Each structure stands twice: as C-alpha cells, then as structure tokens.
Protein 1
Amino acid sequence: MSFLFSLLLLQGAPVAAPHAMPGEETVAPYAVDDRNAGAAPFVGDGMAKAFHGQDGIRRIVDNMVEFSFADAVIGEIFANQDKVRLKRTLFEQFCYILNAGCTYTGRDMASAHKDMGIQKADMNRLVEVLQRAMTAEGVDFQAQNRFLSKLAPMRRAVLQK
Ligand code: HEM
C-alpha cells in the first residue's frame, strides 16, 4: 500500500463506494446504515453457529443467488442484475441478521426492489430457493424457520404495491 493511500485511509477520506468489490456496477449514492438490513440481529451466537459461521452463510448466499438466476420462475427478474453486488450485499445482510460479525452496507429493502414488479408467487419461490440452499448447508429446520420468520416482515417492502 502506498504511503499516500495509507494516509488517506487514516484520515478517513471519502472514497467512492468503499465497500464495493471489483466487478460491481456503480449504484446511485445512498446512506449506509445497518438499519437498511430490515431486521434487528439475533442475540447471542446460536444462529451464527447453526449457519456454520461466515463460511456457511457465504455458501448459502452463493447457492441462493446462483439458483435464483437459473430459476425457471424468478430467473427473469434477476437477469441483467449485478450478481457480484447481490452476493456481497446479501451475504452482509444475512451475516448481520444472524449476528455472525458483519455490518450491512447495502440499500434498504424498499429501494433495492423498487419497480421490479415482484409478486407473492415470486416471494414464495425465493423462500423455496433459500430453503434449498440452507438444507444443502445442513442448517437444522428450527434455525431455518427462525431465520425465515425474521425475513417475513420484509415482504411488505419487497412486493410491488
Ligand atoms: C425478504 C425477502 C428478500 C430479501 C431479504 C432480499 C434482499 C436483497 C438484498 C440485500 C439486495 C441487495 C441490495 C443492494 O444492492 O443494495 C437485494 C436485491 C435484489 N433482490 Fe432481493 N430480497 C428479497 C426478496 C426478493 C425477491 C422475492 C426477489 C425476486 C424474486 C428479489 C430480487 C432481487 C433482485 C433482482 C435484486 C438486485 C437489485 C439490483 O441489483 O439493483 N428479492 N435483495
């Protein structure tokens, strides 16, 4: 790391999209806040352990995103969206909510899903895809259901009005 760059970091100089990974498309600026994740985290480390920590959460999210893009029902909603960003932000969101040691830097749920035309059937399908990914990781059903209950109230923000 160059001296100048280290100095900038130390001074907390603003950097464009500091959380973005290489390969991500740029998005319109927004205020970063853990509350954008849409749910308060679980207390304690039980849920993080049930999901096998950050490694397990990453495997679940990667599978969920790949299944969603390839899915016959909801695949077309994901077509042309930024898969690199979605994998990162979804991982952060799940990791934050599961209290596995992350902060969430993505957009709030209403902004992220605005004008996508998402219907109830799409939501149900996504839940099935997530269940498949959690089961593939060996997450027990009680922990799966506790997590799904946390996500359930976000339906209102995601579904097309
Ligand atoms: C409770 C349910 C859901 C949660 C927790 C969730 C979570 C997220 C998160 C964290 C992001 C990324 C935000 C960002 O880029 O800053 C996102 C984006 C996205 N979501 Fe969801 N989502 C949900 C439901 C759905 C459903 C039902 C669909 C479609 C079937 C969907 C399709 C998408 C797409 C296509 C994007 C990419 C948007 C873009 O790149 O501009 N989501 N979602």
Protein 2
Amino acid sequence: MPDLAPFIAGLPKAELHVHHVGSASPRIVAELAARHPDSPVPTDPEALADFFTFRDFAHFIEVYLSVVDLIRDAEDVRLLTYEVARDMARQNIRYAELTVTPYSSTRRGIPDAAFVEAIEDARIAAEADLGVRLRWCFDIPGEAGLTSAEETERIATKLRPEGLVSFGLGGPEIGVPRPQFAPYFERAIAAGLHSVPHAGETTGPQTIWDALTDLRAERIGHGTSATQDPKLLAHLAEHRIPLEVAPTSNIATRAVATLEEHPLKQMVEAGCLVTINSDDPPMFGTDLNSEYAIAARLLDLDAQGVADLAKNAVEVSFMEAADKKKLAAEIDSYTEAALR
Ligand SMILES: [Zn+2]
C-alpha cells in the first residue's frame, strides 16, 4: 500500500469536530505561559514537550486544565484562536468548526462581550492572513450543569457572533443525562443555530437516541456506541445524520480499547456518513493529517477514498452552499492532479 501521508498533507480539508483550548499546541502554550510567568506550565521547549507527551487520560485532563488556567484575558483568547488557525493552515485545513466553550472563560472573569470580540477578531484575521475560515460551535460543558447551559445559550443567542453556526454539548456523559439540556437547545435552534452535541462516546446508544430526539442533533459528536444498536445505525444512515469520528481521541479516552476494534469500518459498512476529526489534537499527540492516515488504514482506502472522506466533511459542514462547492472542487482538482 503506497504511503498516503504526502497526499493527505496536501489535501485541502475541513474539520468539524475540534476543540478550542484542546487545540493549543506546545508552541501556543509556550506563548501563553510567557504572558503569565506565575503559571506552573514550563516555557522551556524541552520540558514543555515532555509535559505534552500523552501518557493517559488523567494526564490529558491535567494538561487541559493547566492550559485553561493560561486563558485569563481577552488577549489570551485572541492569541490562542489565531494561533490555532495557524496550526490548521500548516495542515491545509481550509475550514473548521471550532468548538468553543465560552462558559470556561466567562466563569473565570473574562466579560462575555470581550470574549466574543476576541474570537471574532481572530476569525477575521485568520481568514485574511492564513486563508483558514473559522466558524464556532458554542458548547455547554455538561459537567458544569444547567447554569452553564443557560449562560452558554444566553451568550450564543444574545451576543450572536457572526461566526457562530452551531450549539453543542460536551463533557462527561455518565451521570449527565442529555434530555435536561433540551430547553437550551430548543432556544438555540429557534435562534437559527445547528445542533451538534457529543453523544455515545462513553455511554451506550440510548444517549445518541436522546441526542436525536431531545436535542434534535443534526450531527453526532463521536457516536462510537452507535454500532451496538443496528436500529440506530440504520436510522443514522437513512436520515444521513453524520458521525464526527476522532479515532485517536477514542483510544485516549478509552471509549474504544484499540484502533483495531474501532467501529469506524462498521459505521461505513452500515451506510453511515462519517467525517474524520482530531478533537483535542496536540493533547492526544495527533493532528488531522494523522487521523486521516489512521482512517485510511482502518477503511483500507486509496487516495481517492481519502479524498471522498474529505468531501464528506465539506458536504455536512455548515458552510454556505457556494463555499461547499468551491472547496469540494478544490479537493477534486487536487486529487486529479495527484493521481495523474
Ligand atoms: Zn469533542
């Protein structure tokens, strides 16, 4: 099998499931840590690389929280967002729906309007300077309960930044039933936002059914347990409800034991629409290009098959129709040239 890495690296891509703070690479964290010398995060590149080497899920949480602690003012938010786009540009990611959790910042004292202005500034600059189009999914950190749901929905609908396209729900699923968030999703949907909750990553297929019926999910974040329920798989396939798959993340969080046991192939064989994503890439020691390489291996794909996966993400994104057409055409012409 030929090495697909160079093809994947040059392939124009869209990413639909990737988190804002979870995308902070060691380079970005070093810049943030330099702004806040009292933080325990090392700034020395070697110590930082070690700090970032993925060990286990508990270590991921530790790294994640220490990065959250570095986001203290609007300038930190702007810097993080713009630099995340720079890392995306290096991978030829042209469009990304970035999952942002405003509650983590407003709870820490950054005013909501300043937070929104910072991400919007970064979005406009990233598009102009780097050719990366960012859109936002504002997500409820489920573990923070209904207060966070109310605050997230309020910021989304009252401040309604131009780049905002969707409304999400993350955090632990066990002990955090999805139906309680229904009223907040109802209001966000009424305001014109798309519904994209995480579901069925660490719990069974019922959580995915709940996300579909109670939260009116249009795409499912992860949905790894869908393959335990043939009726659900058939429903997702029939209604073309995409699954946002992030293989390395699923191993890191132990949602799936090994890559060999990953349900990606079963999802595709059942006719489900899947997209490939990186979730919290530097913290899981991965990037989107690596996730495409893994997907190619699990699905036994050639270059054309990989390009088709990339086109899935474009098709089920919340881009304008004309932009979808343009990016899909770019993928086609790149693939044609590469296979010639
Ligand atoms: Zn996620």
